[in-house]
Amino acid sequence: MVKRDNIRPRTCRECGKVFPGGPRAWYCPDCRADRAKESCKRSKARAKKGLTRALGSTDFCVICNKPYIVFGANQKYCKECAPEAITEVDKKQSLEYYLKNKDTYNPKRNEARRIKEKECAICGKIFIPDGSPRKTCSSGCDDVLRKIRQRKAERKRASEVKKMRNKIAWERIKADPEKIAKYREYQREYKKRKYWEEKNRLGITKRDPKKQTTIRFDADILEIFEADKKGWQTRINNALREWVEIQNILKK
Fold first, then answer.
1. What is the pLDDT of residue 17?
2. Structural domain of 36
3. CA 110, 116, 118 angle in degrees (round to 5)?
4. Is residue 34 part of a domain?
5. Across the chain, how many H-helices and E-strands are there?
6. Stretch 239-248: mean pLDDT, rounded?
7. Is 207 contained in some domain?
8. Does residue 136 fall inside a structural domain?
9. What are the phi and psi torsion angles at 212 (to 5°)?
10. In this predicted structure, which of 64-78, 130-144, 192-206, 235-249 has the lowest mean pLDDT?
């Protein structure tokens, strides 16, 4: 996953200079250095007046008045009150920022939330969904889509029932060796019947049995047909049959 870069051109709130910075970069490097110097002066002045707190010292929470150890200069709350108090401050600041900038944010937000035109899943007609997640343009198409989903669900249930019945039947067959032999014989006959049904559908009749003969091939040709090992003689026979069929077509 590629990490997003939040560095963007920012405008300094002090001098108006444009500089590259993150989301919380409010001031350019020069103004930031000046503000740091001023903050250091103010901190030293407060220290002289005895208004600062040393890190590790003890102070009292402004909400519950319990003592806590100072870990930062801006700390006001104990560990128990801090999460809720900070959340309330964030909510207040967020609301103030939104009310100040809502004219800029609302048009973009509304455009992103607006559901645009959709294509009907049944007839392909373009329609406006009116804020709903519907996938069809009318009640008629909705009925058709519901029937399609019902048929899919029924086929799925029938398939699961069939699998369960086949599993039960197979468990019964495995318990009897005679039934296993009959089942294997039935499988062979079924595959043979399906094979010739497909051949007849394609207009291919049963051919004469193959005849044995001796033939010589170039070494490189034979190597190509023997690359997949098993069935190389059948592949040679199929290649010759294709050539014969092409010649028959050319003669016509």
1. 92
2. 7-52
3. 160
4. yes
5. 6, 6
6. 81
7. no
8. no
9. -85, 140
10. 192-206
